[in-house]
Write the structure tokens for this entry.
Amino acid sequence: MTDDERADLDALLAAALRLAQREIEQVAAFDPFVLVVGSDGRMLSAEIDTSQLGRYPESEELAQAATEQLAGLAASVRATALTVTTRLAKERSDAIEVRLDHRAGTSLVVIMPFKRPKFGGRIEYGDTTSFRGAHEVWPS
């Protein structure tokens, strides 16, 4: 991974985790959302077009629609981050999942588990774990 790729993906990851944590703490959940680094290096949020989905789409349906829409933007962006909530069955924990993709070839999935307090208190966030992801926006 080049320094430029790392800088783009690090910036996207930091922003995605910050936004997801804010949403979880304010409204307890969030719909999938997208951030991109444009060809000019600016970070932008992108709206997910849900007009072709049902009235109450599932989170994975939204994620699939977002991935397809990001592929359509591939010529004008250099990196993408799709952020969703997921459930870690083995750990019995919810998690923030950030799917990062860079046009230079790097694709990662970063997971940050979190636990809601039973009675008041603060949400506890675990350590992030990263895995090689599927290169979906710029398929090989």
Notes: Helices lie at 3-27, 59-73. The first helix runs from residue 3 to 27. The CA atoms of residues 48 and 66 lie 6 Å apart.
